[in-house]
Amino acid sequence: MKVLIVGSGGREHALAWKISQSPRVETVFVAPGNAGTAVDAVNVPIEVTDIEGLVKFAKDELIDITVVGPEVPLVLGLVDAMQEEGLKVFGPSKAAAELEGSKVFCKNLLHAANVPTADYRAFRSADDASRYIKDRYSEPNDPVNVVIKADGLAAGKGVIVCDTRSEALEAIDRIAHQREFGEAGKELIIEERLFGQEASVLAITDGETIMTLPAAQDHKPAHDGDTGPNTGGMGAYCPTPIVDEAMMEKVESDVLVPVVHAMKRARRPFKGVLYAGMMLTSAGPKVLEFNVRFGDPECQPLLMRLKTDLIDVIEATIDGRLGELGPLEWDERPSICVVMASEGYPGDYEKGRTIRGLDRAAELPDVKVFHAGTAIDDGRIYNTGGRVLGVTAIGNSISNAKLQAYTAVKEIRWEGAWCRKDISDKALAYKA
């Protein structure tokens, strides 16, 4: 079997690594890939937005299954284009991908399906949104506790948490007037700020059967102690003790099942990975957002633990027979992924800096370094993105996995490299 994976991040490297382990798979291609996928698979120089080029490659190479990693090609309709050519592809249609492509659509669907989420208002103009804030808060330093979100895709950065009236007005200006996040800001949402711990619950569904994966916990803020600006994710671990069996059942019954049914009623049947970003509040779990693909970096520790052949799960999802599969098999040991980033991320950063020590990190037991923003030229590996590597380890305990991951981190060097030092500490605090 030939498999094509679309994307170039840590998620796609993890997918390539896991899928290539299947005895059914002969060759894994990754378009466009990175320096890590160049080792574990075969890179193809086609960008994720080149829908025509990806379809042509899949047809010419007689690709058996295409797995779409990131959200952008899903929102652009790559799955539809592949299916029109009779190609097998894993991921939701363009219509179903709007669940992530538009926060307004998502919030409206959650409200209609009676899924617990934050109260919100949607706006099409900066003036209307600013007036809404000004009418409710009179002084610049009045506490507001709201979150301002760009409607469209913004690479995980179009969410601004605001504590005061002036911060909220500044966020509205950045998103809707200055268009800091481009066309993603043509609409925006103002919603109440929820308090609690965040958790990620991912499920694979063929539109009928829902197969829930172990809960993970991402770390969105840039710095230790959940401080600093939001990022695409600075690390994750799996499973998280914060989501116990009872809470998982509640998320399945109150969130996942209603959303799958609501999408079907909306004539947007969902097939692929359904990712619920949850806030575990004092009033119970509430949905922060939905993604329509594996999370990055949650995918890395999840796949590190998965024992079942992933290609069997993917094919059953595409064919609508997920219910015929038995339960997934997991390594009982927990895993942790620490993201190493470029200096300046999530703002501007320098590219082209040589990465050293990858070989030494790879020699450590129970460690896999997944590449994200990297490229290779004549044997030299260098950084090309803000999030550069996802150093992932598995261990007999959370603390053991953390020690192993950070031991590997210390082996890797490039100018300006940095990471959070507290990935998974929430699990240790919870258990204590």
TrEMBL record:
It holds the Pfam family GARS_N. Pathway: Purine metabolism; IMP biosynthesis via de novo pathway; N(1)-(5-phospho-D-ribosyl)glycinamide from 5-phospho-alpha-D-ribose 1-diphosphate: step 2/2. It catalyses: 5-phospho-beta-D-ribosylamine + glycine + ATP = N(1)-(5-phospho-beta-D-ribosyl)glycinamide + ADP + phosphate + H(+). Keywords: ATP-binding, Ligase, Manganese, Metal-binding, Nucleotide-binding, Purine biosynthesis. It comes from the Bacteria. The keyword Nucleotide-binding applies. The keyword Transcription regulation does not apply. Coiled coil: none annotated. Its cofactor is Mg(2+); Mn(2+). GO terms for molecular function: ATP binding; metal ion binding; phosphoribosylamine-glycine ligase activity. Its EC number is 6.3.4.13. PROSITE patterns: ATP_GRASP, GARS. Residues 107-319 form the ATP-grasp domain. One of its GO terms (biological process) is purine nucleobase biosynthetic process. HAMAP family: GARS. Belongs to the GARS family. This is Phosphoribosylamine--glycine ligase. It comes from Novipirellula herctigrandis.
